[in-house]
Structures are given as structure tokens and as C-alpha cells.
Design a protein that fits this description.
Blueprint lengths: L1 E6 L19 E2 L2 E2 H11 L4 E6 L3 H8 L8 E6 L6 H6 L2 H4 L4 E5 L2 E3 L4 H7 L6 E7 L7 E5 L5 E6 L8 E9 L3 H7 L10 H10 L4 E5 L4 E3 L3 H12 L5 E2 L2 E2 L4 E3 L2 E3 L4 E3 L2 E3 L2 E3 L4 E3 L2 E2 L3 E3 L4 E3 L2 E3 L2 E2 L4 E3 L5 E2 L2 E2 L4 E5 L9 E2 L4 E5 L4
Parallel strand pairs: 1-4, 1-6, 4-5, 8-12, 14-17, 15-18, 16-19, 17-20, 18-21, 19-22, 20-23, 21-24, 22-25, 23-26, 24-27, 25-28, 26-29, 27-30, 29-31, 30-32
Antiparallel strand pairs: 2-3, 6-11, 7-13, 8-11, 9-10
Helix pairs in contact: 6-7
């Protein structure tokens, strides 16, 4: 069985962060979301992987390489434009051949992995398998309607009226019958080849499409709030691990990871939290559910429930930063202007001057 990961797309819901970076490389607990996807596939025994890339393909290639670090072999497939999930399948024909495969959207995050679902799909009588997750907002997602026996009857993309609260999440499995489907469907009103139309085609043809429920948590990390929630959930599974330096004037509480080369000086880290390699935390407070990536400087500042990407400098801030996603190479320093309020989502290479306290 092969794996196909879609890592194209514009990441519009994460702008401005994704104007210059791939959304699949935004870290959750200091690991890019895409890496979790690859690890889930490898854990399930799927090691021959194709990654569909778009405008940020060079970044994906640099981060993932040939896949050997994950125990996988990676082939890159260039998509000229984000023309839909089914289009991503269609252009991968040469890589996939007639093999059965797992399709995994590169910004989806599932806690318990996919091993049981892949094992179930080893049954040759199945032509496709979709994973469902019960959601409170089905109007924002594609949903599946099941009959009384649990069989898939139809799929509806963003239903205006309630038909089901079972969202079709971004993990699918197909056999060779998918090629007939993706070649038969037409672009939707938004100009894309839709995965829901692909699956509906298979259902209408009477093929065996299995629906399986996901009972652990699942997150589509397409928005800032989703990234923060995924970060919170993963950090809460950590155990304390101190590989860097924590000086005698610092205090570390409750599930804190300090990576190699990091230094904690006269600071308080209250976990769950992770401090990345070569990052310095000086005279600062890092609160629960915060991830600080590598090569950052946090000095005379307080941060809580936030994600800070690599190479950031946050210095001399007298009000706490909370509920924020801060991009790469960002600099946040004091400014004399008023009034005072912070809630931040900053793109790469930003520089922000924050109000001071009159000193």
C-alpha cells in the first residue's frame, strides 16, 4: 500500500503566516504538522510516499528530504495550481499505479494514528474507506449521510440545512476504482475536482465504501485557533525532559521540555510547554500550552497559550502575550505608543513595536 500526502494549497486561513511559508510546516509542539502525518503513515506500515506540492514545494522538499529520516521513501509530485483534492489524486497516477493507497491531507492532525484503519483496509472487498468525526459545526465541512446499517448513502459539502454531523476528515483510502471516479467527475462551482464528488461516484456505482468513526481527537490545522488547540493537546501528553540548561534562579513546573542548547535564565516555565533548541529564555515567564521553537530569544517578557516559530526575538514587553501565533524571524520590542492591548498573529519577518509603561 502506498501513501499520498497533499501539501499544496494556499493556506488562506492562516495568512499572513502562509504568504511566505507552507501551512503544513507550521509546528505543533515544535514539530511540523506534516511530520506527524508522515509518522502516522510509517507507523501503519505505509512507507512508499508521494507528496503533492505547490508553490511552497521547495520548503517541503528541504524539510522532508528523501524521507529516510522517517523510515520512508518520498516522491514529490508538482501540482500547478490548487485544483482540488481529487485533482491531487489524478495527477499522481504514475506514482500510485493500481496500488491501494492512503490519501492524507498534510494539515490534518489525528491523535491516535491510522493503524487500525489501514489494517481494516487490507480487506480486498473494500474499494474505499472514509473516516468520520462527529462535529458541532457540520455546515462548515463535508459530511456523510449513513443509512440505518451504517452504510454511506451520500456526501454533502457544507450543507446549508442539517443532514448529518459526521464530518468526512482528510484521511481516505482507495483502490484502483478511484481512477474511474476522478476521470468522470466535473469541476465544482469553485473550479475544483472535489473529493466528495469522487466518493459519491463510488457509492453510486455500488462499490464497497466503508465508513469508520474516529473517536480520539482530530483537528484540521487550517486556522490559528486550530493550531493553538492542537498544540495544547499534544503538549498535555508530554513528560518533563530537560536537555538544555536551567539555572539556579529559574523554576520549571509540570510537563516542560527544554531541548538541547536551550538556556533558561532567571525565569519561570509553567507547563505544559516546550522550549526549542538554542532558544534563550531570560527574566521571563512562559505559561501553560506554549511552544517556543528553535533559536529564539525571549527576554523580559511573558507568553502563555501561544506558538512562537523559529528565530524570533521578543524583548522587554510589560504585558503578557496570550493566544497568539507568531511567525518566523519576528521581532517584538517595546514602543512608547498607547493604548495598551496585545493579541497577535504575525507573519514571517514581521517587526512589531509594543507599547511601554512610560519608562
Amino acid at each position: 500500500m502506498k501513501g499520498l500526502i497533499l501539501s499544496g494549497g494556499k493556506g488562506t486561513r492562516l495568512r499572513p503566516l502562509t504568504y511566505t511559508g507552507a501551512k503544513q510546516l507550521v509546528p505543533v509542539a515544535n514539530k511540523p504538522v506534516l511530520f506527524y502525518v508522515i509518522e502516522d503513515l510509517v507507523e501503519a506500515g505505509v512507507t512508499d510516499l508521494g507528496i503533492v506540492v505547490g508553490d511552497t514545494g521547495d520548503q517541503i522538499r528541504e524539510a522532508v528530504g528523501d524521507g529516510s529520516r522517517f523510515g520512508a521513501r518520498v516522491t514529490y509530485i508538482q501540482q500547478e495550481a490548487p485544483l482540488g483534492i481529487a485533482h491531487g489524486i489524478k495527477i499522481s497516477r504514475d506514482f500510485l499505479g493500481d496500488d491501494r493507497f492512503v490519501l492524507f491531507l498534510g494539515d490534518n492532525f489525528i491523535r491516535d494514528g491510522i493503524v487500525p484503519f489501514v489494517e481494516a483496509f487490507q480487506d480486498d472487498s473494500l474499494n474505499a474507506q472514509i473516516l468520520l468525526y462527529k462535529v458541532p459545526n457540520p455546515e462548515a465541512l463535508g459530511v456523510a449521510v449513513l443509512d440505518e446499517r451504517g452504510n454511506v448513502v451520500r456526501l454533502v459539502e457544507k450543507p446549508k440545512e442539517f443532514v448529518s454531523d459526521l464530518a468526512v476528515i482528510g484521511i481516505y483510502m482507495f483502490d484502483h476504482h478511484v481512477w474511474e471516479a476522478v476521470n468522470a467527475i466535473k469541476p465544482s462551482k469553485r473550479g475544483e475536482l472535489e473529493i466528495t464528488d469522487t466518493i459519491q461516484y463510488l457509492v453510486d456505482k455500488g462499490l464497497n465504501v466503508k465508513a469508520s468513526m474516529v473517536h480520539g481527537w482530530w483537528i484540521d490545522t487550517g486556522k490559528m485557533s486550530d493550531i493553538l488547540e492542537a498544540n495544547r493537546l499534544v503538549l498535555d501528553t508530554f513528560e518533563t525532559r530537560i536537555l538544555g540548561e536551567v539555572d539556579a534562579n529559574s523554576e520549571v513546573y509540570n510537563k516542560v521540555v527544554v531541548e538541547r542548547g536551550a538556556r533558561i535564565v532567571n525565569s519561570i516555565i509553567r507547563g505544559p510547554a516546550i522550549i526549542g533548541e538554542e532558544t534563550q529564555i531570560v527574566n521571563s515567564y512562559i505559561g501553560p500550552f506554549t511552544s517556543i521553537y528553535h533559536h529564539c530569544l525571549i527576554q523580559d517578557a511573558e507568553i502563555e497559550h501561544s506558538v512562537v516559530l523559529e528565530n524570533c526575538r521578543i524583548v522587554d514587553i510589560d504585558q503578557r502575550i496570550e493566544d497568539s501565533l507568531i511567525g518566523r524571524n519576528v521581532e517584538i520590542t517595546r514602543s512608547p505608543l498607547k493604548p495598551r492591548a496585545y493579541k497577535l498573529m504575525l507573519g514571517d519577518h514581521s517587526k512589531v513595536g509594543l507599547i511601554g509603561n512610560g519608562r
